Amino acid sequence: MKDNKSIYLLAGFLIVLITASVGVWYISQPAYQAQKKQSSSPFAFSSIQKDALDKVTIKHGESEASLRKTDQGWIIGGVPAATDITIFLDNLSKIQVGNIVSQSEISFQMLGVDESQGFILSLLSGGEEKFKIITGSQATTSQSFYARNADSNTVYLLYGDIWRFVSRTEEDWRGKQIVAVTEDQIEKLDLVEGAENFSLIRDGDSWKVQQGGTSYPIESNAAQNIFHD
Predict the structure, then answer these.
(1) Does 17 fall in a domain?
(2) Using one digit for the tens of pLDDT, what is the confidence trace for 93-112?
(3) Closest Cα to residue 77, out of 163, 169, 166?
(4) pLDDT at 112
(5) Does residue 103 share a domain with residue 67?
(6) Where is the DUF4340 domain positioned along the sequence (predicted)?
(7) Domain limits at 103?
């Protein structure tokens, strides 16, 4: 009986040892590590493929900024969008996820992540929504803010330079360059200042000001200031 008991103890010990060894081997495998990393990440920032995106919407209360990619680039409301849209999309993939701040809807309003106060960011490709988060208030440290997935109550502290982009209005997203022309392509420029109006007219390599029926030359430095202010 004593020998049988020793054999059972030894067999049990070997089973535990083998099970532990298999477990250690399994969790060291790349497939497990990738799965663990994916399942532990509450957001999919690193998986954003900006070149595949063709639409970005940012809703804030009743207002919405909708940017769409065309063959000529990103546009908003039929006009070119601000060129730093590409910086914004690059910055999204660099977001760092901090600690959980709250898991209760009671805190949504205080943190600015409720649907009425938050900035609801959606990324789409081919009409399919690929990514959606609600960005809330800025936190105390630099480039930090609160956010949650649109379908989750868990609010996280995030770090990265995107808040200044998602908080823009539609007007802010419009490109400020109305037409791309160089100074040497301009022959005449009509200017209005209050009740006064006058024209700046090219005269060879110099410029002159015309107001009413009177014209007079203008110093080249003054003309340069008008074009480059």
Answers:
(1) no
(2) 899 999 999 999 999 999 99
(3) 169
(4) 96
(5) yes
(6) 87-222
(7) 45-173
